[in-house]
Structures are given as C-alpha cells and as structure tokens.
C-alpha cells in the first residue's frame, strides 16, 4: 500500500513547510532532553520519549507531503507505520516503535507502571529515530532543514 492510498482515510496531502518541520524536530529534541532528567518518574520519561518519537514521525510524514487526519482514530499508528515509506526506516525498527505505541496505550488506559528499562528503551529508540529522520532529510530533502541543521 502506498501513502496515497491513505488519502482521505487517515492522511491528507500538504505542501511541506520547512518552518513546521524544523519546529517539530526542535520540539522532539526538547522532549528528548527533558526525558533524560533523572528527577522525573519513569512514566514521565517514557511519555516524553514517546512524544519525541511522534514528533519525529510527524516531521518525516510532513516532509513527504502528508499530514494525519487527527480527527480519525489511529493517527499515531499511521505516523509510525508510515516510517518505512517516509524515511526508509527498516521494518524491524518500525515494529519496535509500534510496540512502544501499544505499550503507551495500555499504560495510559490502565495506569500500569513504567519500568526504568522501558523508559530507557523508549528514550534510545527516540534518539535513533531522530538521528535517522535528520539524516534522511539531509540526504533527500535538505531544503526542508534550516542552515544550522545541515
């Protein structure tokens, strides 16, 4: 399935906006920085790392001319599962990110505890994803990055 097949169902077409993509990447970096704060609970660190993952996935999607329809369910799932098509992320890494998405849903709706190791895994995955997205943008869409990020 292509991303165009999802238009009107879970995606809409947009014109990639460098300023918007840059804001998402900077917000993701701030979320990562905060996720490293040891005074935060593991739940808060996990949430911030997950937020960074979503901001990176959103930047990747927007760089390719798409945005999720947030009025429809499953927009987080769409952003993550689109990563192999948007930034050529390997499927095994996408599956790990999708597992974190599922864990986040369970935690949010059940109140389950987040272990330190789970928070650390989310943080590591977020760091790797942001590096991957930034590298892909530099190689494939450098005009979408500000000069200081190239």
Description of the molecule:
- The chain is mainly alpha-helical and 150 residues long.
- It has a single domain, classed as Up-down Bundle (Four Helix Bundle (Hemerythrin (Met), subunit A)).
- It is 64% helix and 4% strand.
- Helix 1 (18-35) runs antiparallel to helix 2, helix 2 crosses helix 5 (91-110) and helix 2 packs parallel to helix 6.
Write a brief structural summary.
With 150 residues, the protein is mainly α.
Find the CATH superfamily.
Nucleotidyltransferases  domain 2
Structure class: mainly alpha
The number of helical segments is 6
What is the string of SSEs from the N terminus onward?
EHHEHHHH
Helix content: 55-70%
N-end to C-end Cα span: 32 Å
GO molecular function: DNA binding
Protein name: DNA-binding protein
Organism: Pseudomonas benzopyrenica
Keywords: DNA-binding
Descriptive tags:
150 residues, mainly alpha, Four Helix Bundle (Hemerythrin (Met), subunit A), 2 strands, DNA binding, DNA-binding, DNA-binding protein
């Amino acid at each position: 399935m292509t991303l165009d097949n999802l238009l009107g169902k879970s995606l809409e077409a947009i014109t990639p906006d460098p300023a918007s993509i840059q804001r998402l990447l900077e917000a993701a970096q701030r979320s990562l920085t905060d996720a490293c704060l040891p005074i935060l609970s593991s739940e808060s660190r996990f949430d911030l790392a997950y937020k960074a993952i979503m901001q990176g996935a959103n930047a990747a999607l927007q760089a390719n001319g798409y945005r999720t329809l947030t009025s429809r369910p499953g927009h987080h799932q769409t952003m993550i599962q689109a990563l192999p098509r948007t930034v050529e992320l390997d499927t095994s890494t996408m599956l790990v990110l999708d597992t974190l998405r599922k864990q986040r849903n369970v935690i949010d709706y059940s109140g389950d505890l987040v272990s330190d190791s789970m928070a650390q895994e989310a943080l590591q995955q977020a760091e790797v994803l942001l590096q991957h997205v930034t590298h892909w943008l530099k190689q494939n869409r450098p005009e979408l990055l500000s000069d200081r990020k190239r």
